[in-house]
Design goal:
- There is one protein chain.
- The protein has helices at about 20-25, 65-70, 70-75, 75-85, 110-115, 145-155, 220, and strands spanning about 10-20, 35-45, 90-95, 100-105, 120-130, 135-140, 160-165, 170-175, 180, 185-195, 200, 245-250, 255-260, 265, 275-285, 295, 300-305, 310-325.
- The chain is globular and about 60 Å long.
- The chain is mainly beta.
- It folds into 2 domains: about 10-220, Jelly Rolls; about 245-330, Jelly Rolls (Sandwich), CATH 2.60.120.
- A hairpin with a 6-residue loop joins β15 and β16 (about 295).
- The strands form 4 sheets. Strands 12, 13, 14, 15, 16, 17 and 18 form a 7-stranded antiparallel beta sheet that branches. A 6-stranded antiparallel beta sheet has the order 1-2-3-10-5-8, with no helix packed on it.
Length: about 325
C-alpha cells in the first residue's frame, strides 16, 4: 500500500438566503452561478457531503472512504476508536451578507437522546469584517425560560442577546447550547464537529419569494439552550510571529494560530491525531520531505495524516494558518 501524504480537497459551495459574493471576490474561489454563496465547505466528512481528494494517487476518493481504509494511520488510534469511519470535524468558510437566524445547537447528550449522531460545538475566526459588523453570542443578562419565552412571543429576543462588534483575527468559541447569530458584513472560518443540526429560534421575519418563512424549532431549541451569562464571549490570545499560539482547547478540537514569515518545522511524533492546516492569510507551502510539496492559500485546507511525523511550513513571503487537531479528554 502506498504511504499516506498531505491531502488537498475540492471545495463545496452552498447557496444561502443570507449569503453573498465574498468567497469569490476576497478568496478568489469560483462558486459558479450561485446567487448567494453563504458557505464554502473546505473539509467535510458529513454523510452525503464528503470532501473529495484532488492531489496524489488518492485523487477522486472521498474522505470517509479513506478513514475506513487507513483508519488510525489517517486519523489517529484513539480518534478512530471514538468516531469510527466518519471524519470528526467539518471546516467551513461563511460569508454573511445578511443576518443568519438566531439559533442554537444541541450537545452530544441531547443529540443522542434525539437519535442523532452528535451535537455541534464550533469556533469562529474572523477573516474579514465590514465596518461596525456585529454578531450575537449568548445573552446580555441573566434570563430564565419564562423571560426568554416572553421575549420570543413579543419578537423582542434581540433585547436580551449579547451583540459583539467584530474585527479581523478575533476568535469566538461557540459551545453547544450557546445561542448565537452571525451578522451581515462578516467573512469567517468555522471549525466544528461533524454535524449539520441547527435549531432556529428567530429568523428576522424573513420570507421567500412565495411569502413563506423558514421553519423555526422553538420546542427543540428549549432543551438545548444554556442560559448562563459568560464573563466574555470573545476568546483572547496574543499573536506571536513564527510560533504556535493557542486559540481554543476543547474535547472536540484544539486550534492554534501560526503567523509565519520564515519556515518552521512541526514535530507530530507524539501526537495521535491528524492535523488540519486552514490558510487564513497569504500562501504557504507544506512539505513532509517524502512526497510532493503542497501549496495552501486562503480558504483552503491541507489534511496531514496522523502517521506523518514532521512537516515543514514554508510561507511564500508570509502566511497565517489555523492548526487543528483532536486531543483525548485527559490531555486537554
Amino acid at each position: 500500500m502506498n504511504t499516506l501524504y498531505p491531502l488537498k480537497f475540492e471545495s463545496q459551495f452552498r447557496d444561502k438566503i443570507w449569503g453573498g459574493q465574498k468567497i469569490k471576490s476576497i478568496l478568489n474561489q469560483d462558486f459558479g452561478d450561485l446567487p448567494n454563496c453563504g458557505e464554502l465547505w473546505a473539509l467535510s466528512g458529513y454523510p452525503g457531503s464528503e470532501s473529495v481528494v484532488t492531489n496524489g494517487f488518492l485523487a477522486g476518493n472521498e474522505l470517509n472512504e479513506l478513514v475506513e481504509v487507513y483508519m488510525d494511520e489517517l486519523v489517529g488510534e484513539k480518534i478512530h476508536e471514538m468516531y469510527g469511519n466518519v471524519f470528526p470535524l467539518l471546516i467551513k468558510i461563511l460569508d454573511a451578507n445578511d443576518w443568519l437566524s438566531i439559533q442554537v445547537h444541541p450537545d452530544d447528550n441531547l443529540a443522542h437522546q434525539r437519535g442523532l449522531e452528535r451535537g455541534k460545538t464550533e469556533m469562529w475566526y474572523i477573516l474579514q469584517a465590514d465596518k461596525e459588523a456585529k454578531l450575537i453570542a449568548g445573552f446580555n443578562q441573566k434570563v430564565n425560560q419564562q423571560v426568554y419565552l416572553q421575549k420570543i412571543k413579543e419578537k423582542q429576543i434581540t433585547k436580551i442577546m449579547n451583540f459583539e462588534e467584530v474585527k479581523v483575527g478575533e476568535v469566538y468559541y461557540m459551545p453547544a447550547g450557546r445561542v448565537h447569530a452571525l451578522g451581515p458584513g462578516i467573512l469567517l472560518a468555522e471549525i466544528q464537529q461533524t454535524s449539520d443540526i441547527t435549531y432556529r429560534i428567530y429568523d428576522w421575519d424573513r420570507v421567500d419569494e412565495s411569502g413563506k418563512g423558514r421553519d423555526l424549532h422553538l420546542d427543540e431549541a428549549m432543551a438545548a439552550i444554556d442560559f448562563e451569562v459568560a464573563d466574555s464571549y470573545k476568546s483572547h490570545y496574543t499573536e506571536k510571529k513564527n510560533e504556535t499560539v493557542s486559540l481554543i482547547k476543547s474535547e472536540y478540537f484544539t486550534t492554534n494560530l501560526i503567523d509565519l514569515d520564515v519556515s518552521i518545522i512541526k514535530d507530530f511524533t507524539e501526537l495521535d491525531s491528524f492535523v488540519i492546516y486552514l490558510c487564513v492569510d497569504g500562501i504557504c507551502e507544506l512539505d513532509d520531505e517524502i512526497h510532493d510539496k503542497v501549496l495552501v492559500s486562503v480558504g483552503e485546507v491541507v489534511l496531514v495524516p496522523a502517521s506523518t511525523a514532521l512537516v515543514h511550513l514554508n510561507p511564500l513571503n508570509s502566511a497565517k494558518l489555523i492548526e487543528v487537531y483532536i486531543l483525548p479528554k485527559e490531555e486537554n
